[in-house]
Specification:
The complex is a heterodimer. Helices cover about 50% and strands about 0% of the residues of chain A. By secondary structure, chain A is mainly alpha-helical. Chain B is globular. Classes of the chains: A mainly alpha, B mainly alpha.
Chain lengths: ~50, ~575
C-alpha cells in the first residue's frame, strides 16, 4: 500500500534528455567502456614495466 | 599535533559543517529532508557519491594496503564503470519514473509487500554493519595521535555524527560531501608532493617507482584467473561489477543520492562522471601508499605502526622477548636500505649484473623485514591474548603525523575526520529513510502527517547512529577496514542485486518467486562464506545467480495471474 500524500511530484512522464556531449546515451556508455579498457591496458603495461 | 595543526583542523571542520548546514537549510519537509526536493545538479551528486565511497576508510586503509600488499587492490574497481553504465541505462530512469523515496519501495510496486520488506531488512542489516566500520576509521586517528582507546573515540565521533545528521538532511550531507571531496583531492596531492620531496636527493622519481616495483608494490594488474585470489583482473571485472551493481543499483545510500537529481539526465551524468574518475583516483591513492613504502626504505619505520602496540611490546614484562626481534628488524632495515641504494645506482648505470645482485639482496632484506614484523605481531597477539593483529590502517597516519610539516598534518587529519563524518552521516541518513518509509510508514503508522514523518526520520537517524557506534566497538577485530566493509557488503549485496535483476528484466517472475529467490540467494552466500575458500568478491555473483534461477523456477511452478508490472517505464530500455 502506497500513500501518495508524501510522494514526490509525479514524474511518470519524465523525459530522458540527451547527454550534453556525444549526442546519445549509448555513445556515452560506449565511451566509458572504451575508457575502462584503455585504463586496464595502461595499468597492465605499468605493472609489467616496473616488475 | 602542533598549534597550527589544531587551527587548520578545527577551522576546516567548522567550515565544512557550517557550509553543509547552510546549504541544507530549509529541509523542513520529508521530501526535502530525504530527497533534497529533487533539486541537485549532476556535479554535486557525482562528488557526493565519490565522497561517500572515498571515506576516511579509503584514505587511511588503501594507502596502507599499497604499503603492505601493493597496488593490486585497484582491480577491485575495474567492474565499477560497467556497473555504472548498466545502472544508468536501467535503474536510474526506472526509479525516477516510479516516484519512490527508496529502491525497496519500487519492489512493492513491481512484486509485493513481503519482497519489499525482506529487501529493506537485508539493507538495514548490511548497511547498519558498514556504517559501524565507517565510524571506526576516524577513531583510529585519535588513537594514533592521542593514545585514546578506540572505544572512547568511536563514542565521541558517533555523538558528533548524530547531531550533524539529525539537523542536516541529505541536502546538507551532499553539499558537505562536495567540499570534502575537493579537500580530499587537495590533501592527497599535497601529501604526494611532500613524500616525493622528502626522498633522498640522489634518488630520482623513476628510481623510487622502480624500487617500489622491484618488491611487487606496483602490481596493479594480475591476469591470472583464480577464485581464491581476492584481487585479479577477472574478480575485479566480474565480481567487482556485481558488487558495484549491487551498491549503486540496490543500496539506498547510493540510490538516494541520484534520486535527488533534477532530472534523469542529471542523475546519469553524475554516475558517468563517477565511473570515469573513480579508478584513476584509487590508483593515485594506492600510488601514494607505494611512495610511502619507498620513503620508509630510507627512513627507519617502526616495527609495528600502531603506537599502543609498540608501547606494549616495549614494556618491561615483554621487552626481553621483543629485543631480539627489534635487533633483527634493525639489521634487515639497514640491509634493505643498502640494497635499495645499490639497486637504484645499478639501474641508472645500466649495470645488469650489479642490478641482479642488488635486486636479490633487496628482496631478501624485504623478506626479513616482513618476517620480523610478523614475529612482532605474533608476540603482541600472544602476550595480550588478542585474536589477531593488523596495523595496515595505521601506516599512512603514522607517516603523516611523524614526518609532514605543521599545518599539513592538521589538513590531512581534517580530511580524514570530515570524510568519515560525511560518509557515515550519509549512510545513517539512508538507513533512517528506509526505516521510516519502508518500515514505519508502511507497516506501523501509515497515515500520519508530513511533520510527523519528518520527526520520525530524525529519531530514526539518531537510532542508527547509536547502532553504528555499538557495532564499531568490534571493528578492530576485522583487519583492514576497507576490505571489511566490502566483505560485509558482499554477504548481503548479491541477493539484493538478484531481486532487482528479476524486477528489471524478468517480467514473468512474481512476488513469491522473488521472495523465495532472495532467501535462497542469502543461504547460498552464507554457505560460500562458511564452507568454501571462495573470495568474497564472488559472493555477489553467486547470490545474484541463485536469486534469479530460484525466482524464475518458483514463479514457473507457482505462477500468479496477471504477473507483470504497471510501474512506469518498467521493462523499457533506456
Amino acid at each position: 500500500m502506497l500513500h501518495s500524500s508524501l510522494m514526490p511530484q509525479d514524474r511518470a512522464e519524465m523525459p530522458d534528455e540527451p547527454p550534453p556531449f556525444l549526442g546519445t546515451w549509448p555513445r556515452v556508455y560506449t565511451a566509458v567502456l572504451v575508457y575502462l579498457a584503455a585504463l586496464i591496458v595502461l595499468f597492465y603495461a605499468f605493472t609489467r614495466f616496473f616488475s | 599535533m602542533r598549534p597550527l595543526d589544531w587551527l587548520v583542523l578545527c577551522s576546516t571542520l567548522t567550515f565544512i559543517v557550517l557550509y553543509g548546514l547552510y546549504k541544507g537549510r530549509g529541509s523542513d519537509t520529508v521530501n526535502k529532508y530525504l530527497l533534497a526536493g529533487k533539486t541537485m545538479p549532476w556535479y554535486a551528486m557525482a562528488l557526493s557519491i565519490m565522497a561517500t565511497q572515498a571515506s576516511a576508510i579509503t584514505f587511511i586503509s588503501t594507502t596502507g594496503q599499497a604499503y603492505v600488499d601493493g597496488m593490486r587492490f585497484v582491480q577491485f574497481y575495474f567492474g565499477m564503470p560497467i556497473a555504472m553504465v548498466i545502472v544508468s541505462a536501467t535503474a536510474v530512469p526506472l526509479f525516477h519514473r516510479a516516484n519512490v523515496y527508496t529502491a525497496y519501495e519500487y519492489l512493492e510496486k513491481r512484486f509485493d509487500s513481503k519482497t519489499r520488506a525482506l529487501a529493506s531488512a537485508v539493507f538495514l542489516i548490511q548497511r547498519g554493519l558498514s556504517v559501524g566500520l565507517s565510524l571506526y576509521a576516524p577513531a583510529i586517528v585519535l588513537s594514533v595521535i592521542f593514545g585514546w582507546p578506540d572505544r572512547l573515540t568511536t563514542l565521541g565521533m558517533g555523538a558528533l555524527i548524530t547531531i550533524y545528521t539529525v539537523t542536516g538532511g541529505i541536502k546538507a550531507v551532499t553539499w558537505t560531501d562536495v567540499q570534502q571531496m575537493i579537500i580530499i583531492l587537495v590533501g592527497l596531492l599535497v601529501a604526494f608532493v611532500l613524500i616525493i620531496r622528502m626522498l633522498p636527493p640522489a634518488l630520482s622519481f623513476v628510481d623510487a617507482v622502480y624500487l617500489a616495483g622491484a618488491v611487487g608494490k606496483l602490481n596493479a594488474v594480475d591476469l591470472k584467473f583464480d577464485l581464491a585470489n581476492r584481487y585479479n583482473v577477472w574478480s575485479g571485472l566480474i565480481g567487482g561489477a556485481f558488487l558495484a551493481l549491487s551498491y549503486f543499483g540496490c543500496d539506498q545510500s547510493q540510490v538516494q543520492r541520484y534520486l535527488t537529481g533534477k532530472s534523469i539526465a542529471q542523475s546519469k551524468l553524475s554516475l558517468m562522471f563517477t565511473a570515469m574518475a573513480k579508478i584513476p583516483m584509487q590508483f593515485f591513492i594506492l600510488f601514494v601508499g607505494a611512495m610511502v613504502f619507498v620513503f620508509f626504505l630510507f627512513e627507519r619505520p617502526p616495527l609495528l605502526f600502531q603506537n599502543l602496540a609498540m608501547k606494549e611490546l616495549q614494556a618491561p614484562q615483554v621487552s626481553a622477548q621483543y629485543a631480539p626481534i627489534e635487533t633483527r628488524f634493525q639489521q634487515a632495515f639497514e640491509h634493505r636500505k643498502e640494497a635499495a641504494i645499490g639497486l637504484a645506482e645499478a639501474r641508472r648505470k645500466g649495470d645488469g649484473a650489479k642490478r641482479a645482485e642488488s635486486l636479490e639482496q633487496f628482496r631478501q632484506a624485504q623478506s626479513e623485514i616482513n618476517g620480523a614484523r610478523t614475529e612482532g605481531a605474533t608476540l603482541y597477539v600472544r602476550t595480550h591474548e588478542e585474536k589477531g593483529f593488523n596495523d595496515t590502517n595505521y601506516i599512512f597516519l603514522s607517516f603523516v603525523t611523524r614526518y609532514l610539516p605543521a599545518g599539513v598534518v592538521g589538513l590531512l587529519i581534517a580530511v580524514i575526520f570530515a570524510a568519515a563524518m560525511s560518509s557515515s552521516s550519509g549512510e545513517v541518513n539512508s538507513l533512517a529513510t528506509v526505516t521510516v518509509i519502508d518500515v514505519y510508514k508502511r507497516h506501523v503508522r501509515p497515515n500520519a502527517s508530513d511533520h510527523h514523518y519528518l520527526w520520525a526520520s530524525r529519531l530514526a537517524t539518531a537510532f542508527w547512529a547509536s547502532y553504528a557506534v555499538f557495532f564499531a566497538q568490534y571493528a578492530k577485530k576485522l583487519g583492514s577496514l576497507i576490505e571489511a566493509v566490502n566483505m560485509v557488503g558482499s554477504l548481503f549485496y548479491g541477493s539484493l542485486l538478484g531481486v532487482f535483476v528479476l524486477a528489471f528484466w524478468f517480467r514473468r517472475v512474481n512476488g513469491t518467486g522473488a521472495f523465495a529467490g532472495m532467501l535462497a540467494g542469502e543461504a547460498a552466500i552464507f554457505w560460500a562464506f562458511w564452507f568454501t575458500g571462495i573470495s568474497f568478491l564472488w559472493y555477489n555473483v553467486i547470490g545474484c545467480v541463485v536469486v534469479v534461477v530460484t525466482g524464475v523456477l518458483v514463479s514457473y511452478v507457482r505462477p500468479t495471474p496477471g504477473t507483470g508490472s504497471t510501474v512506469p517505464g518498467l521493462n523499457s530500455r533506456t
